[in-house]
Specification:
Bound molecules: fe (ii) ion
CATH class of the largest domain: Alpha Beta
CATH architecture of the largest domain: 4-Layer Sandwich
Helix content: 25-40%
Order of helices and strands: HHHHEHEHHEHHEEEHEEEHEE
Radius of gyration: 29 Å
Strand content: 15-25%
Structural class: alpha/beta
Oligomer: single chain
Distance between the termini: 96 Å
Strand order of the largest sheet: 4-3-2-1-10-11
Length: about 350
């Protein structure tokens, strides 16, 4: 135990609260309280707060608000990951221009892991997308995805599948996610990593700390119709979780709209997609937002909980907006390329 200095004893003799003295002397409130009681006892004075026997009238103990050390809130390094969803490759309304730009941003920002919340391909359901897919077979869509999905050095995409557009599982009992990873590896791509159907729980680990129950980030493709309020579906999902199964972060694909809300200690991130509005979407009056997310958060090694979290939404406009910026666009080429016929 550290002995009390003259300065400490001076603070103890003032009217400062126990919390204030604890803060100034670098000791715990309990240590300050105990020392003050011992000093009063030594001086023959009663302790400040007494509970006389046989007397129900007691003095109220003064409230001590205490201090939360900044280390508890901000003592750890940032974790940064990428989030995408609903890329719907093979659909004529896919936004590969924006998706590749998003991955360029991930790479330039040093992001190593990207989590995809489902509908990586458009699948094939004739009544919904029969007239708008480039490929209709499982093999055709898997190969198209491997050939066109962004690959960036050092970046791994961990993806789930949905039960709507990748619904071959429901109908044919075919696990498209595992098959896509297999086809990717077969073609030399190690960066497409399947992590589950409809949802996957990702454990958030603090190095060197033993956890009985680590914090979870749930990646989810819930299915069902959209709601008019963008935060509604996420909140209803969080309300339905049982207390012990709640994740710290819930990432929801499927709705194609951006949103952030916080409910029952869960950070809920609604994901935009990378697909322009389809004919199906227009008939249902659905919004289709285009974009990805860079998610930064701190997990406290003191408390094991998330203390800071920031979703950065990288939103894109419709494809016409980017036409002047496309590298292949002829408006960037100076002058006209001509052949004077009959003279060369
Ligand atoms: Fe989708
Ligand atoms: Fe979906």
């Amino acid at each position: 135990m550290t002995s009390w200095t003259q300065t400490d004893l001076h603070y103890l003799s003032t009217n400062l609260s126990n919390a204030d003295v604890a803060h100034r002397t670098g000791r715990s409130e309990a240590a300050v309280r105990g020392k003050r009681q011992r000093m009063l006892a030594a001086a023959g004075k009663p302790a400040a707060v007494t509970t006389p026997k046989d007397d129900f009238k007691t003095e109220k103990a003064p409230l001590e608000f205490g201090y939360i050390p900044l280390d508890v809130l901000d003592g750890d390094e940032w974790t940064r990951i990428g989030l995408v969803a609903d890329t719907h490759l093979c659909c004529k309304e896919e936004r590969l221009d924006a998706l590749h730009a998003q991955y360029d941003l991930f790479e330039s920002e040093g992001i190593k892991d990207v989590f995809h919340a489902g509908n990586i391909v458009d699948g094939y359901i004739p009544k919904i997308n029969g007239g708008s897919v480039y490929e209709t077979s499982i093999d055709g869509q898997a190969t198209y995805c491997v050939e066109h999905y962004p690959a960036r050095k050092g970046v791994t995409t961990h993806f789930i599948t949905g039960n709507d557009h990748e619904g071959w599982w429901q109908k044919e009992g075919f696990n498209f996610g595992a098959y896509l990873e297999f086809v990717a590896k077969n073609q030399g791509r190690e960066d497409l990593h399947y992590i589950g159907h409809v949802e996957a729980d990702v454990e958030l680990i603090i190095p060197g700390k033993k956890h009985d129950r680590p914090q979870l980030m749930k990646i989810q493709h819930p299915g069902g119709g959209s709601a008019y309020a963008r935060s509604y579906k996420g909140q209803k999902m969080v309300e339905s979780f049982q207390g012990g199964e709640k994740p710290s972060i819930l990432v929801q694909g499927h709705y194609h709209v951006s949103g952030y809300s916080y409910d029952r200690n869960v950070h809920i991130i609604g994901m935009p997609g990378f697909q322009d509005q389809t004919i199906f979407g227009r008939t249902k009056h659905l919004r289709y937002e285009i974009g990805g997310v860079i998610l930064s958060f701190k997990l406290s090694s003191e408390t094991g909980t998330i203390t800071r979290l920031c979703p950065e939404f990288n939103m894109f406009y419709d494809r016409g907006f980017y036409k002047p910026f496309l590298r292949s666009d002829r408006t960037l080429i100076k002058g006209k390329q001509q052949i004077i016929t009959g003279k060369q």
